[in-house]
Design brief:
15% strand; alpha/beta; globular; 7 helices; seven-stranded mixed β-sheet
Length: 202
């Protein structure tokens, strides 16, 4: 595991609470260039670990990132030029700014790659979380409505792109995930046990 010019997140710091947001490269020991995975903190965390274990390949991740972060990104540019057979993306949780440009970047660099884009997963109630968005049922409902809306917009953009793609909207496509338990978690990031159950086969 290597850090590419970013300070590692301070131990104990709340995700997204400071500018110390690491960009992480996790190489795979098996066939690292045929499959590429990249995305936000969900990709850096439990979901990413499950997906990398399942698909193998190199995994790039940046806490707090939206699509716009990846438009001018050296490590991603390098991997895209290798024209991976499959590109797995985990984004949308932090917003969708730059989605059109990211899609166009992929299309212009490696249009034959298959895209597997995982949208933002639902958050769950966690009254002690660092994020007030999951402290109360009303706040959680509004937060999840926004996240689900982001997924719908991105899916429509992919549909119009001409790329070969599969879009997984966890709100719609991963049955039971809406009701995951936030006990012991921040309510925002899917923990290991939940990721292993719901992301191991979809």
């Amino acid at each position: 595991k290597a850090f590419d010019g970013y300070t590692p997140l301070t131990p104990g710091a709340a995700p997204g609470s400071t500018s110390e947001m690491p960009f992480v490269i996790d190489p795979s020991p098996v066939n690292p260039y045929d499959i590429l995975l990249f995305g936000d903190s969900q990709m850096q965390g439990a979901i990413g670990r499950v997906l990398q274990s399942r698909f193998e390949g190199i995994r790039l991740s940046k806490v707090g990132s939206q699509a716009k972060f990846w438009i001018h990104n050296g490590p991603l540019d390098t991997e895209l030029r290798k024209k991976p057979r499959l590109i797995i993306i985990q984004l949308n949780s932090n917003g969708i700014s730059g989605t059109d440009a990211l899609i166009n970047k992929i299309k212009s660099t490696t249009s034959s790659s298959q895209i597997r884009w995982y949208g933002s997963p639902p958050a769950t109630l966690a009254p002690t979380s660092w994020s007030k968005a999951v402290h109360t049922p009303s706040a959680l409902a509004a937060f999840n409505t926004k996240r689900e809306g982001y997924n719908k917009v991105v899916e429509a953009k992919l549909k119009a792109s001409g790329l070969i793609y599969t879009f997984i909207d966890p709100f719609r496509d991963i049955r039971g995930l809406k009701n995951w338990s936030g006990a012991g978690s921040d309510g925002i990031h899917i923990p290991d046990g939940i990721a292993k159950i719901f992301y191991a086969s979809i």
